[in-house]
Amino acid sequence: SVVGTAQIGVTGLAVMGRNLARNFARHGYTVAVHNRTYARTQSLVTEHGDEGTFVPSESMADFVASLARPRKVVVMVQAGPATDAVIDELVPLLEPGDIVVDAGNAHFPDTVRREQALRAHGLHFVGTGVSGGEEGALNGPSIMPGGTAESYASLGPILEAISAKVDGVPCCTHVGPDGAGHFVKMVHNGIEYADMQLIAEAYDLLRQGLGASAPEIGEVFAAWNTGDLESYLIEVTAEVLAHTDAATGRPFVDVVADAAEQKGTGRWTVQNALDLGVPITGIAEATFARALSGSAPQRAAARGVLPADTLAWNVPEPGAFIEDVRLALYASKLVAYSQGFDQIAAASAQYGWDIDRAAMARIWRGGCIIRAKFLDRITQAYERNPELPLLIADPYFTAAVSNGVAAWRRVVAAAAAHGVPTPAFSSSLAYYDGVRAERLPANLIQAQRDFFGAHTYRRVDRDGVFHTDWSGDR
Ligand code: ATR
Question: What ipTM was assigned to the predicted interfaces of this complex?
């Protein structure tokens, strides 16, 4: 078959694909480009042809023929049936050893399935997470590729070249086999849900507790962004809160409807955590909080009807309250990340992926939405102990949390007393107290299960499995 010179190809030239193709070209790669509708391909070359070397093709066959071997084709179309359609079109045109990269937001079981199917053709299939949105795709995303180590040997350097860099280290590494890359991207998004919800709860507490305006709270977030909480999401929050609505002159957030939407990665993360039995309460509460915000009939039925019976706010020392909220936010965030990394460890064991958590924290330090200084600390914790069973039990984080536990309790107690919903703050604290408990009330659950279902129990004083004959007690 015909062999061309392009080092990498991109098919699917909507916003993300177009920006990835430009990023490759700007890094000196010869980029084959293709799109179902040729006009998009033409407009890319017309508008950005001067940024590097593009080889446009109108047909998929010409596109494949323009690539050097082993061919590397990045598919950047809608997740789901469109991805399957493009893969089906590509496969007969490729030869053993070629690499198909799905850079879309696929659900990881689909990636596992596609990898198996392509392996049967002698092809490598690399499901890769790409985070950072349009801007990241163009200027350096965080990239999470799965697939074989063999495919990473030739593809990896190209992806690393276009990825974000932090201290000169690429935000891209081989995550693990088949679906590992898309899985890790999914958990990344779940953590993003939790982080956003925690920030929203902090904002709500400052708003209600202090009666502060959006721009005033924006200043608090801007100050927080110079400390432990320094992160893209905190920075964005400060900017959004400072923004004025052009149409009304009011603070922008005051004119935005309070019903959050979701595309589904949070839901996937929670569904998988239920399958694996990993308590990711922060992500779950964040996902459900979005669902509650969108529960219009229930909210209409409850608003002004359900009694509040709350204390009135009286915060004599606003500075101390703000600091309490900051500490509670940091501690809750730590719990949410800790839970997300537990989920990665559990999936890695369950699916045989051997994922290095230090490396995941390292490639999230730049390019992606959850990028934060704090991820350096997580990397170091997993470097100190790759088998670390609990992130918050790493000495650095234990010290960080112990500094804030009292504040955390005050904030959650105040939220309950004043009727401010803080599902993520509260559940994170409950998780913290649960995981550190000397003894949980699960003993009673086991006794109940044995009583009505003869499910047996273990004892604290003897090895073995026991069942009590409860008939005499009835
Ligand atoms: P965005 O939201 O970033 O604009 P998207 O809607 O997720 O993009 O994806 C659109 C891309 O998928 C386009 O490149 C589209 O091709 P067209 O420009 O021809 O519409 C591509 N796409 C969608 N379905 C496809 C299919 N069945 N086969 C091939 N390409 C497809």
Answer: 0.93
